[in-house]
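User: structure tokens for Diguanylate cyclase, please.
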Amino acid sequence: MSVVTTQVDEILSALREYLDDQPPALTLPPAAYTSPELWELERERIFAHSWLLIAHGDQLAEPGDYVSTSIAGEPVVVVRAEDRALHALSPVCRHRLMLMVEPGAGRTDAFTCQYHLWKYGLDGQLRGAPHMGPNKDFDARSCRLPRFAVEEWNGFVFVNLDAKADAIGAHLDLGAQAFTNYRLSEMVQVDSWSVEWQANWKVAMENGHENYHVLGLHRQTLEPFMPGGGDMYIEPYSPWVLHGRIPLAIPAMAPTLTLDEVQQTHGMLLMCFPTGGFIAFGDQVVWLSFVPSAIDRVRVLGGVLTPPEVSASSEAVTRTQQAVTAMINDEDRRGLEAVQRGVGSRFAARGHLCPKEQPGMLAFYRNLAHALLGKEPTDLSTAR
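Assistant: Done. Predicted tokens:
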């Protein structure tokens, strides 16, 4: 048995322990964040078949609006077509494989390859291929961009590279009741970002599953109203969706929303395995998705949502909100990039989890184990 095989087997063996009724209160083995072999396994077993949060519907409001990114190295573009349907497509030209759209967002009436000017409609169908008529083996009618599964839920847009994947909506609906008062489907996006961090995707997701790090990384920004010493409540709904609540030091008031006492006194989380989720507090919802582009790089997609009445009330408030959010994101970036450098140390070892971070992180590890070890997802009828 090779050293490589032994290392991956050891990681998978450690993951299997998180499926026990009393899982170890330990972090993953350091190699889980650096192993090329595990990364390839994740690409095959997780990212080729999982729903990833990619955008908010406001970014795709009009025909021709598109958002482009990559999922574990696979380029993806999501676009609103003329009939207002969403399409998730491969933006790689079928001729000589040139990438037609760079990561980001924009608007277009067609996707045109700048190499030889092959043109595709917003539904992916080939519209034009200069001088290809004499090639009798080429059938333009059957040439189209590969399609992926796409689904919109309460304004959040999810993509799955597996075009035949089961819908994610039924899993998300399990958590919908906790967010009814936030009027998610009516909210508008007032800020968005797409930035790259130099960290493994699991480092970023661990951070999103615990509030303990607020003590250190966000002393001035989040600690005063969402203390890192609070006890985080976690309720798993299925291997793909869980609900969390983070106590607030000061109740979050929302004049335009009718929130109950739990919602006023907590940050309300919905986490979607493997990489996305959102948190609601007061009249604000922040969504984030940590989409891996390589073993040690993650594309951080996200945005801030508010009720329409709030978004139209004050431009100055919006600018302040954007500045604070950017500061918090940068605090996380600096911290997680330092973690990624640390996991490569020869002396790195598994760490003991604080009780404050155990509920969320152990839930994430359990979902990771389900995905990598091929366990069957929980039946939705018994998920709650």
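User: Anything notable?

Assistant: Residues 52-151 form a domain with the Rieske Iron-sulfur Protein fold (CATH 2.102.10.10).
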